[in-house]
Amino acid sequence: MALTIRRANASDAATLGSLGAALMRAHYAFDPQRFLAAGPHAETGYASFLGSQLDDDEAIVLVAEIDGRVVGYVFARLEPMSWKELRGPAGFIHDVLVDEAARNAGAGTALVEAAIAWLREQGAPRVVLGTAERNAAAQRLFERLGFRRTMIEMTREL
User: Are 25 and 40 in contact (CB under 8 A)?
Assistant: First the structure.
């Protein structure tokens, strides 16, 4: 089983859309009041969004391939200082997802490490990410890779 991490390209759009919609469904299952439902156009919408990031110099979309088949992706970008978030400039990992059938093969670790390497090369002084409260597996991965808890989001429905 050969694992490869590479930059996503336009020909990956449909697969990225499917993976992005899977990310939406997973989060919605964690908390349907907080996260968006993956509606009938989630795949095309996510494909369009990630496709729009491919040529952005301040963003990167990477895919993980196992034996030539795309099984996961990571989307990261450079973010400026934020008064709203009380933080300086940072690299931000916005999405990471590995297809359920391909988990525990090292793809998630490799994707996050590759995104961190790219953010470091771009001069990011730190990397920030968010994870769903109920996503214990992702939290274990992130902690294993050196991330620490810094914020807790709380939501109240009105």
Answer: no
The answer to whether residues 72 and 102 touch, using CB atoms and an 8 Å cutoff, is: yes
The domain total for the chain is 1
Q: How far apart are CA 128 and CA 39, in angstroms?
A: 28
Spatial separation of the C-alpha atoms in residues 71 and 104, rounded to whole Å: 12
The CATH number given to whatever domain includes residue 34 is: 3.40.630.30
With respect to residue 62, please indicate whether it lies within any of the assigned structural domains.
yes
Does residue 110 form part of some domain? yes
Q: How many Cβ atoms sit within 10 Å of the Cβ of residue 83?
A: 6
Strand 127-129 and strand 90-98: the pairing is: parallel
Spans of the chain below 50 pLDDT = none
Question: Would you say 57 and 83 are in contact if contact means Cβ atoms under 8 Å apart?
Answer: no
Please report whether residue 19 resides in a domain: yes
Which residues are registered as beta bridge partners of 63?
A: 6, 73
In this predicted structure, what is the pLDDT of residue 154? 93
| pTM higher than the cut 0.90 | yes
Pairwise CA distance, residues 33 & 31, whole Å: 5
Structural domain range at position 121: 3-144
